[in-house]
Design a protein that fits this description.
76 residues, mainly alpha, globular
């Protein structure tokens, strides 16, 4: 049996769903909102992996988080 659990996807979803007010602040281009979301995403991914992240892993979190947030911005 194969597991479909993807810690990166889960961390990003947790970050977006866990703080809708912060997401709204990002959607309205409020200063500091991206940094706060990026930090929360990294912490969520780190917690799911139970270890420190590599530079590449942090960049993957940021890239996927940005992609998902930009998708929310494009949604009607």
């Amino acid at each position: 049996m194969t597991s479909d659990f993807d810690p990166l996807q889960s961390a990003v979803a947790e970050t977006i769903n866990g703080d809708p007010d912060l997401v709204q602040r990002w959607l309205h281009n409020e200063p500091g909102s991206w940094g706060a979301l990026a930090g929360k995403g990294v912490l969520a991914y780190r917690r799911l992996l139970n270890r420190k992240l590599t530079d590449l892993e942090r960049r993957r979190v940021w890239a996927l988080l940005w992609e998902r947030l930009a998708g929310l911005r494009r949604s009607p």
